[in-house]
């Protein structure tokens, strides 16, 4: 693995982000990446979307939102999406992306970062727990709300 770095999502990286592969079974836990990209269009002042590069190769994508005026506390500082290419999973790419997200949240004066996910075998829960998220509740739809206190 080369040196990991984050860059803003751009016209030059979006095609590669859309072509990130998943391991079998992971697709049931993720909406299409275009949904996350649409978040920037709908909320340009609060959306934070970054691409993880290994040297110059796109290996991951992270999308978050920072909105101190959000009606629910768990939407004020939230990790919406994290994707790591199937071939690059298990190499620290996701951990790197979450660490950078936490830095951004601290820089913005946030007290925590939340993530909302669907529980289930093969889902993201084990990853989120490994990087420090702790379940704290559920949405009205039964999704898990987990957080990292900063």
From TrEMBL:
Entry-linked InterPro entries: Acyl_CoA_acyltransferase (IPR016181), GNAT_dom (IPR000182)
Coiled-coil segments: none
Keyword list, A-Z: Transferase
One term of GO molecular function: acyltransferase activity, transferring groups other than amino-acyl groups
Domain (N-acetyltransferase): residue spans on this chain: 4-150
Entry-linked Pfam families: Acetyltransf_1
Record protein name field: GNAT family N-acetyltransferase
């Amino acid at each position: 693995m080369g040196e990991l770095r984050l860059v803003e999502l751009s016209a030059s990286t979006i095609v590669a982000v859309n072509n990130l592969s998943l391991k079998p079974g992971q697709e049931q836990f993720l909406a299409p990446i275009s949904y996350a990209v649409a978040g920037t269009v709908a909320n340009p002042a609060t959306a934070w979307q970054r691409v993880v590069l290994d040297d110059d190769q796109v290996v991951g994508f992270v999308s978050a939102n920072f909105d101190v005026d959000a009606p629910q506390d768990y939407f004020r500082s939230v990790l919406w999406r994290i994707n790591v290419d199937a071939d690059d999973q298990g190499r620290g790419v996701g951990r790197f992306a979450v660490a950078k997200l936490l830095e951004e949240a601290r820089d913005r004066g946030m007290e925590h970062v939340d993530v909302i996910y669907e529980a289930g075998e093969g889902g993201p829960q084990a990853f989120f727990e490994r990087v420090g998220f702790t379940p704290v509740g559920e949405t009205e739809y039964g999704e898990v709300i987990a957080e990292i206190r900063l």
